[in-house]
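Notes from the 1:1 (GR / supervisor)

We went over the backlog. Supervisor wanted to see one worked example end to end before approving the batch request, so GR pasted a single chain during the call. The sequence is below; no edits were made to it. Supervisor asked that the structure be written out right there so they could see what the output format looks like.
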Amino acid sequence: MKITQAILPVAGLGTRFLPWTKAVPKELLPLGNQPIIAHLVHECLDEGITDICFVIS
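Structure output shown during the call:
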């Protein structure tokens, strides 16, 4: 059975990343030339995941 769904927890204040997360949510912090969340989504898509659920707040 192939996994086609993923749940990505992106809630929280990101206090461990202060002071960077004071103005930008941790999911949008850059990692290389893209936000962290873009890397997560691309990795899911590369693995054949078609349904992605983001858990916020």
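Supervisor's comment: The helical segments are 36-46.
Batch request approved.
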